[in-house]
Specification:
Blueprint (H helix, E strand, L loop, with lengths): L1 H22 L9 H9 L6 H12 L8 H18 L9 E2 L2 E2 L1 H5 L1 H19 L6 H15 L4 H10 L7 H26 L4 H28 L2 H4 L5 H4 L5 H25 L6 H11 L4
Antiparallel strand pairs: 1-2
Length: 292
């Protein structure tokens, strides 16, 4: 069964990569802007968020191809956030996915513009979906809320404000729910929207994604302590170097491992409301055990 799901993820990833390669191919090239955008957008990675969009569309009875523009819009926003997070004014990281970060290659000004352009283009991608207008409007509302000050950007603001001081568990959970969890939740909701899913189905997949997102971030905090540069493709120990509070500093590694298990069980319980949740269950379990 695992091989079947691994193959399914690989097929989804091919669809996503092929789509992303074509997004800016026909656009005019201005200085090195589009090159900088593609440098980060096409750098690979797990593509978990767009895969969740495609697979949740399938889960809710839709055709995965119809959700591709939604899926790739999520990935474009995720990529823009990574470009900006790596900037000297934010996390000041020099490496991402095993190679120099965008601002190291293209300079800070171009990196900022590349992020801005990816964010803007993401909402243009929503309009490319061959879906009823009401679903596209619902997708725009969902994604704009998740990506903005009430979601991912708000979480980044809390992250920056929390540097140099100890955050308690409640503060960390709020930060994570915004910075990481909001976009993961949007990814599954967009899949449900693309399929024409019901409000109840959106609630189920949102509950799944919120638990999944929390487990994902806690595991990420753990890997920053226990993993290596070779596995992650970026420096480890950066949270401690930047004096950031993490779930590891709040709960310890053992406490984090226990909480990841609890949250994974919660995600599975939520997604079991569907008739064929096996892929989502497998994915939650796989992410809980990931090493990179």
């Amino acid at each position: 069964m695992e091989n079947n799901f691994t193959d399914r993820m690989a097929r989804d990833r091919v669809l996503i990569e092929d789509y992303l390669k074509k997004v800016f191919a026909a656009e005019p090239r201005y200085a090195d802007l589009q090159e900088a955008m593609e440098y980060s957008l096409l750098a690979g990675g797990k593509r978990i968020r767009p895969i969740l969009t495609l697979e949740t569309c399938r889960l809710c009875g839709g055709e995965t191809e119809s959700a591709l523009p939604f899926a790739c819009a999520v990935e474009m926003i995720h990529t823009y956030s990574l470009i900006h997070d790596d900037l000297p004014a934010m996390d000041n990281d020099d490496l991402r996915r095993g190679r120099p970060t965008n601002h190291i290659v293209y300079g800070e000004a171009t990196a900022i513009l590349a992020g801005d352009a990816l964010l803007t283009a993401a909402f243009g991608q929503l309009t490319q979906a061959k879906l009823p207008a009401d679903r596209i409007v619902a997708a725009a509302k969902c994604l704009s809320h998740a990506a903005g000050s009430a979601g991912m950007v708000g979480g980044q603001a809390l992250d920056m404000a929390g540097e140099g001081r100890a955050l308690n568990r409640r503060e960390l959970e709020l930060l994570q729910s915004l910075k990481t969890g909001a976009l993961i939740a949007a990814a599954v909701e967009l899949g449900c929207i693309a399929a024409g899913g019901s409000d109840a189905q959106r609630t189920y997949v949102r509950d799944y994604a919120q638990a999944l997102g929390r487990a994902f971030q806690i595991r990420d905090d753990m890997l920053d302590v226990i993993s290596s540069f070779e596995e992650l493709g970026k420096p480890v120990g950066s949270d401690q170097a930047n004096e950031k509070s993490t779930f590891v500093t709040a709960l310890g590694l053992e406490g984090c491992a226990s909480l990841v298990g609890e949250l994974t069980s919660q995600a599975i319980e939520a997604i079991n409301s569907f008739a064929e949740p096996a892929f989502h269950i497998w994915l939650a379990q796989s992410l809980a055990q990931r090493t990179k």
